[in-house]
User: What shape does this take?
Amino acid sequence: MRKPMLAGNWKMNKTRDEAISFILAVEGKLPDSVDCVVCAPAIILRDLVKRRTTLQIGAQNMNQNDSGAYTGEISPVMLRDTEVEYVILGHSERRAYYNETNESVNAKIKKALEFDLKPIVCVGEVLEEREAGSTNAVLKEQITKGFDGVKISNPENVIVAYEPVWAIGTGKSATSEMAEDACSYIRSVLKDMYGEAISNNIRILYGGSVNTKNVNELMSMPNIDGGLVGGASLKADSFVELCNACAK
Ligand code: PGA
Assistant: This one.
């Protein structure tokens, strides 16, 4: 009932020409039964939106204000105007390097929904938190504070990505059991906040060293609805393979 999704997070990679070559290379090879998305650097979003086919386009961050004196920032108005569909919010790199907090993520989720952008909200524990046995407590805090006061009328437009920070870019993916445990816990927290019907329709992705070898096992888990993929989304071939794995 939940449509699978594979979102590539390109981070600070790819020039305009490289991104356009990627779009041409994946064209006609992506499954309709999966929402296939790339979240690209803001400066090339317009070029990608103009050329999108089955591939959908997202941004990697957004300011929570409509406009104003925020040098270097990109507003929800601008993303709407660029006609992107998705926006990643609260990625662990932004939490770690750019002071993103549960409170700012909360304001951004509200703004994204106000402007009909589909938020991909990232949560996840760092290694010390996992080792201390506090993973669920961390996830609960990130979800309850991140979604505090957020009204969800179309749950299919809200995506949560569980990304254990220790698994991102390290080649050390969580096991499928660990990922499933965390995703099912996240769904239970959402159920407490929004009830069963809504929580059952919110897609929950796993992210952190997803690749063409581990994707099938991760995708076989009942509460994992797709992947948020960094490194392995940069090459057209592996992106296509990952998207097709999500169709199974
Ligand atoms: P990775 O990154 O797939 O390279 O681990 C995932 C992410 O940061 O979203």
